[in-house]
């Protein structure tokens, strides 16, 4: 028997879900660097209108995701997480492919909103693993699972930017659809879930926070996920436009934008498992607080950058802080939440992340349209500092009752 065949089922699920997360991250990020450029080809828009449409195209997906995620989470706690994984994978297969045929900006925005309603693969992958992984391995496992998503996010913009620069902006959407079909087949064949509904049939009707001892900390993690996502996605609507400005409209802007968008993924890919294991050892709070402080210190200098190279350096360093943020919040929720309601808590967390992915790009679009692209980084620094304050307050308020699991 091979090493994989000898591994316990939760580890085999981890391998399959890592691949699914990688494909989802890669496919979803393929269009990010050049989406504003794609929109600019659909009409002769002034700067403020272009940034507005780019913000809507980015945030529309996450707006619908935020609305429907609690419903999917409640259904997952009743039926299991694997059916939700299949629903998300097949839904994105269809909607991503159709997006490649968009005739105008409004059809593009509408299809991205529909895609958001059927998305949620990564969130359900986290929920399935959280319900199965041993507590003493949760930090490393969540960190490893995160590397699948960020690894795909790393590769996706580079491939998408390269393909878009050669074949046009529609091809990456078709590639996304084909990749999600592969993820659907992989999940169907290799993911096995030992799902048992709650003994009490009325459990799903109770609050998802029933049985959670440290509700204040869990809520802080959900809010933190929202603010982290708002900060990290705020640059998405303007990244290609800002790169275009820094390059003085010369060179392969789509390709360079893809590289700049992917750089944080390199650092996160390297650091996430190590920081997850460190959280298992010293407690997640210390890693989370340090990550937020470092994140603010890296976003602020981006306001002053004068070249693509310096922007890339700070984007890379932000990726290190990313490795200490979302995986750690996932770990805290995993340790604090009963298995019977883990899908609902993670769905609320996904809704919060989706709301952050709406707030961040829309705020950035507004700031960039009224002021300048650079002021987006000042706004982002402020969001990170607010996040730090909320986390510190939650742990301090719960200090006497919260005991971090090693």
Shape: globular
Number of strands: 0
What integer value in Å does the Rg equal? 20 Å
- Bin the helical content: over 70%
The second-level CATH architecture is Up-down Bundle
Identify the CATH class. Mainly Alpha
Total of domains: 1
Order of helix and strand elements from N to C terminus = HHHHHHHHHHHHHHHHH
CATH H-level superfamily: MFS general substrate transporter like domains
CATH domain topology: Growth Hormone, Chain: A
Short structural description:
The chain is an all-alpha fold and 406 residues long. The chain has 17 helices and no strands.
Secondary-structure blueprint:
Elements: H1 3-6, H2 9-29, H3 35-40, H4 47-79, H5 82-99, H6 105-118, H7 121-130, H8 138-167, H9 171-190, H10 215-233, H11 239-246, H12 253-282, H13 284-299, H14 308-323, H15 326-336, H16 342-370, H17 375-397
Helix pairs in contact: 2-7, 2-8, 2-9, 4-6, 4-16, 5-6, 5-7, 5-9, 7-8, 7-16, 8-12, 8-15, 10-15, 10-16, 10-17, 11-12, 12-13, 12-14, 13-14, 13-15, 13-17, 16-17
Structure description:
- The chain is mainly alpha-helical.
- The protein has 17 helices and no strands.
Summarize this structure as a short list of keywords or feature phrases.
mainly alpha; Growth Hormone, Chain: A; 17 helices; 406 residues; globular
């Amino acid at each position: 028997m091979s090493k994989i065949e000898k591994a316990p089922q939760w580890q085999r699920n981890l391998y399959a879900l890592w691949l699914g997360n990688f494909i989802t991250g890669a496919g979803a990020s393929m269009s990010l660097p050049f989406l504003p450029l794609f929109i600019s080809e659909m009409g002769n828009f002034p700067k403020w209108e272009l940034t507005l449409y780019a913000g809507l195209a980015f945030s529309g997906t996450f707006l619908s995701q935020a609305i429907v995620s609690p419903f999917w989470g409640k259904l997952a706690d009743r039926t299991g997480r694997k059916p939700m994984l299949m629903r998300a994978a097949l839904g994105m297969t269809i909607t991503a492919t159709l997006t490649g045929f968009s005739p105008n900006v409004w059809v593009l925005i509408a299809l991205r909103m529909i895609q958001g309603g059927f998305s949620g693969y990564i969130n359900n992958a986290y929920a399935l693993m959280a319900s199965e992984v041993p507590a003493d391995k949760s930090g490393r496992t969540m960190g490893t699972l995160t590397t699948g998503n960020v690894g795909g996010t790393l590769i996706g913009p580079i491939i998408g930017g390269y393909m878009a620069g050669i074949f046009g902006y529609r091809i990456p959407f078709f590639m996304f659809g084909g990749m999600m079909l592969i993820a659907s087949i992989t999940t169907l064949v290799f993911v096995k879930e030992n799902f048992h509904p709650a003994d009490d049939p009325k459990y799903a009707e109770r609050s998802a926070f029933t049985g959670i001892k440290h509700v204040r900390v869990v809520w802080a993690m959900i809010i933190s996920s929202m603010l982290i996502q708002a900060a990290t996605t705020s640059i998405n609507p303007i990244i290609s436009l800002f790169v275009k400005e820094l390059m003085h409209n010369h060179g392969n802007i789509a390709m360079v934008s893809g590289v700049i968008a992917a750089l944080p993924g390199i650092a996160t890919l390297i650091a996430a498992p190590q920081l997850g294991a460190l959280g298992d050892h010293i407690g997640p709070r210390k890693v989370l607080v340090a990550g937020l402080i470092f994140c603010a210190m890296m976003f602020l200098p981006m306001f002053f950058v004068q070249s693509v190279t310096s922007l890339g350096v700070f984007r890379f360093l932000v990726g290190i802080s990313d490795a200490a943020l979302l995986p750690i919040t996932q770990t805290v929720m995993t340790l604090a939440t009963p298995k019977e309601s883990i899908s609902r808590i993670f769905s609320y967390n996904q809704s919060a992340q989706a709301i952050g992915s709406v707030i961040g790009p829309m705020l950035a679009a507004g700031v960039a349209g009224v002021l300048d692209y650079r002021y987006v980084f000042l706004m982002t620094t402020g969001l990170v500092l607010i996040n730090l304050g909320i986390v510190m307050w939650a742990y301090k308020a719960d200090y006497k009752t919260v005991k971090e699991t090693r």
